[in-house]
Amino acid sequence: MKLLSSVAVFFAVIPVSPVIVDWPAERPLICQFFLRRGHMYIHHTDDTKRSEDDYSGIAVLVDVNEIVFGRLPFHNARNKSKRETSNILFQTARGSQEADNYFLLIADRYRLERKNWKDGYNNKKNCKMVQFHFSVPMLIKKNATDPNSPKFVGTYNVIRDKLYYTDDDKERVVHVDLKKKFDSGYVSTDGFEVLCVHNR
What we know:
five-stranded antiparallel beta sheet, signal
């Protein structure tokens, strides 16, 4: 009951645009980090590496004017203490922000499917995409042709047409005019994935 009430407050504070999928409190898509036990909060985020890095938690930070996403490494997510938090470096429109009070995407009531940008973002009939307000979580492969290349979790802002994420050196990375570059073919969509939701 505590979880549902906290999620309900989240949706009351952050209104969702009518054109964006609404995630009802009785079928939550998120939970607070310290309430993660018992929830399906670890996701298969990479198909190529055969290690713990294949799996991650996807963190959701509710900031003052935006919602942003980051990667919770698998070894951090396994922490046995229910109350112990794990700091994550998020990238917002204003810059880097470290936080230990955030939510996690959960797949209790939904199945999350990774899809390439062109099959997900550009194909909304077949992809009920994870999106909160103007923010879309994205999975970014540094080098799509290299199986050992790291993968990151970032935030695509549909209004600004910008992608923000933290790389493997903990540096801030920003892609400007991303959709324009995808649509023009200037940048390949390989290595850029969104999450599509299916009811269980």
